[in-house]
Amino acid sequence: MDNLDWVQWPAMLVTVLAAWLIGSRQPRRRMIGFVCFSLSNALWIIWGIPANAYALIVLQICLFLMNLRGLKKNA
Known about the structure:
By secondary structure, the protein is an all-alpha fold. The chain has one domain (2-74). The chain contains three helices and no strands. α1 runs antiparallel to α2 (27-48).
């Protein structure tokens, strides 16, 4: 697990950046925010698998599906 502990920090930073971008009035920035959220979902899953954080993994999958919905509505 020690080797993957570093993944949680970029995951957290990308999540915060995505939340900031989603709040933009500009559709392009919102689109980038959805992409960042998808990246953060992947990073959290990568971190969660060796940590046996199954609830976190399921949450990230659900959030990813909602991000897909947001991408579609933003386009």
